[in-house]
Design a protein that fits this description.
Layout: H1 4-15, H2 20-25, E1 39-45, E2 48-53, E3 56-61, E4 65-66, E5 69-75, E6 81-86, E7 94-98, E8 101-106, E9 111-112, H3 126-131, H4 136-142, H5 150-153, E10 162-163, E11 169-171, E12 180-182, H6 199-205, E13 210-213, E14 221-226, E15 232-238, E16 251-258, E17 261-269, E18 275-276, H7 283-300, E19 305-307, H8 311-324, H9 331-339, E20 358-359, E21 362-363, E22 370-371, H10 372-384, H11 388-401, E23 413-414, E24 420-421, H12 426-429, H13 431-440, E25 441-443, E26 449-452, E27 466-472, E28 479-486, E29 492-498, E30 507-511, E31 522-525, E32 528-530, E33 533-534, E34 539-542, E35 549-555
Parallel strand pairs: 10-24, 26-30
Antiparallel strand pairs: 1-2, 2-3, 4-5, 5-6, 6-7, 7-8, 9-13, 11-12, 13-14, 14-15, 15-16, 16-17, 17-18, 19-27, 20-21, 22-23, 25-26, 27-28, 28-29, 29-35, 30-34, 31-32, 31-35, 33-34
Helix pairs in contact: 8-13, 9-13, 10-11, 10-13, 11-13
Length: about 550
């Protein structure tokens, strides 16, 4: 298994980098960035702890603040834990800490679902786009130098609000076919947040809810209802891992924030008749939240692991895998799970989708809708044809416009110039996991060739960026690879590939797409000069038969 320290040690050995510690700490943008390093110095009693951050220490009771964080609960067990939550900002985090520091750091994301679309789409009217031959929007974006960027694409089309059947999102657990559905705004069949905070109803009616997740990729839904005066209400909902044979249990937590202060929180366990309010024991809520996180982390640890500079792409792909693990898999869903090493069986070869119209790099049906269920096959054809900038455009466009904003549910199809979409579709949900896998590791369907990094964005090779991809399932066995860029001091990109111990039966093409498109000047493989590389395609060729760890150092 690759890890950050092993990679850096190998890269340092190959490139003569001495300041390993400094290099490691400089790459915080690649991993989960801790908002604060808070630790417990003393657990005083069941309601009180002493917390430390830097030189600041303070005795804090449950419900009191330590800086931006509120002490929400103290959990017992093998290790006593303090649960802290930041309500001072809409993207505040949940920290679970003990005497060694943070044990769990759960980010909170948010995306607007209401954007002013009075302006044209990237400067064009709907009529102009529909009358133009081919994909006018894609041509416009691809006419700019460099790779397409997610931020340039994300607001081009209207967010999805109205989904056929009313299932805007859902929560569930692995192995259970039943899920609990949510409508736009966070209502479920058993819960309406507006009952507890009446101002929520107007926010939902106006389509101004902000949606997101808690914990990066986790299926913990988050809805934020902003008031005009800056106050806001937050709903968090998730399904705990449970062995109950009855209906799927769901936790709902509603919090009211006024003037930057949490005024109240109400916790609703669907298994119980009463609301858990201020002063009540919240241990079960936070224990279930942490247990759910640990459970999903453990399940995903069996498959391919990704640690890349673009945390959104990684989290959205992992979230797609998680959704596909809820209930029975469809054909493309199974292919995505196999591609991530999460399901048995041979990895299917996708059939590229060809022909037809497209908008913003996404294929359209005969009726003009964007075909979410066909977009993965469309993207596969682009990667197979080595049209990498086009494949990245399709990937970013699909991330933004084939899913609900923030909660990332994928319908089978959507209207490009309206907020309407068809029902949830498992094949469409497979889009992000499959596209990320193919951009990172692509198995040539016509030859015994494995591509590594074939479509990795150039931004991932900027100075001091690290990429770690572990346990990639291939038809030749599991493969891992990593890259470490040092373009300012050493003028190099170091890579480490780990092949099966018995030898790799296929040729491997490692592509290093330098961020500035600088040409490779020389290559070392396992400390020896290596001539099997192509400057034009940015590819280093590793012949079949290589086994175990291979260290590559490309100079620029």
């Amino acid at each position: 298994m690759l890890d950050r320290r092993t990679l850096l040690t190998s890269a340092a050995a190959m490139a003569g980098v001495a300041a390993l510690g400094a290099n490691q700490s400089a790459r915080a943008d690649v991993v989960v960035t801790l908002a604060s390093h808070i630790e417990v110095t003393r657990f005083i009693d069941g309601d009180t702890v002493e917390l430390l951050e830097g030189r600041k220490h303070q005795v804090v009771k449950r419900g009191e603040r330590f800086g931006d964080y509120t002490l929400m609960e103290i959990l017992g067990g093998e290790t006593t834990l303090a649960v802290l939550e930041n309500f001072t900002a809409r993207d505040g985090r949940i920290l679970v800490v003990d005497k060694s520091g943070p044990r769990h750091d759960l980010s909170k994301t948010l995306e607007a679902t209401a954007i002013d679309y009075g302006h044209d789409v990237l400067g064009h009217s709907q009529a102009e786009i529909e009358a133009a031959p081919g994909d006018m929007l894609a041509r416009q974006i691809l006419s700019q130098p460099g790779d397409p960027r997610f931020d340039d694409i994300a607001t081009a089309l209207q967010p999805i609000h109205s989904i056929q059947g009313g299932v805007y999102s859902f929560v569930g657990t692995p192995g259970r076919p039943d899920t609990v559905a949510f409508a736009y705004g966070g209502r479920s069949s058993g819960f309406d947040p507006a009952v507890y905070q009446p101002s929520i109803a107007a926010v939902i009616a106006a389509g101004k809810v902000w949606d997101g997740l808690v914990g990066g990729y986790l299926p913990v839904l988050r809805f934020v209802y902003p008031d005009d005066n800056g106050d806001w209400t937050e709903l968090v909902a998730f399904a705990p891992f449970s062995e109950d044979s009855g209906p799927l249990p769901v936790w709902y937590r509603l919090s009211r924030i006024e003037g930057g202060q949490r005024v109240w929180s109400k916790h609703i366990d669907s298994r119980l008749p009463n609301v858990i309010s201020e002063g009540d024991d919240l241990k079960r809520f936070y224990a279930d939240l942490i247990g759910m996180k640990v459970g999903w982390d453990r399940i995903l640890a069996a498959g391919m692991k990704v640690d890349v500079p673009d945390t959104r792409m990684a989290d959205q792909a992992r979230h797609g895998v998680v959704r596909l693990l809820m209930g029975a898999a469809a054909d493309t869903g199974t292919a995505a799970l196999q591609a991530w090493g999460m399901a048995p069986g041979a990895i299917a070869k996708a059939a590229p989708a060809t022909g037809g119209r497209a908008v913003l790099g996404l294929p359209q049906t005969d009726s003009g809708e964007i075909a979410g269920a066909l977009s993965a096959a469309y993207g596969y054809g682009l990667v197979k044809g080595d049209a990498i900038r086009e494949a990245l455009l399709t990937t970013y466009s699909g991330m933004a416009h084939l899913h609900t904003r923030g909660t990332w549910l994928a319908p089978a199809a959507r209207k490009p110039f309206a907020d309407e979409a068809s029902a949830y579709d498992r094949d469409a949900q497979a889009f992000c996991p499959l596209m990320m896998r193919w951009l990172l590791a692509f198995e040539d369907p016509d030859a015994e060739v494995l591509w590594l990094g074939r479509g990795m964005p150039r931004a991932w090779f900027e100075n001091e960026k690290i990429v770690l991809i572990d346990d990639i399932p291939t038809r030749w066995g599991r493969v891992s690879f990593a890259t470490d860029s040092d373009r300012k001091r050493e003028h190099r990109i170091a890579a480490r590939v780990v092949f099966p111990a018995g030898g790799m039966a296929a040729e491997t093409k490692l592509r290093l797409r330098s961020h500035d498109q600088a040409p490779i000047r020389s290559v070392m493989v396992n400390g020896k000069s290596w001539r099997q590389f192509d400057v034009a395609s940015e590819v280093i060729v590793l012949p079949a038969g290589m086994k175990g760890e291979v260290l590559i150092n490309a100079r620029y």
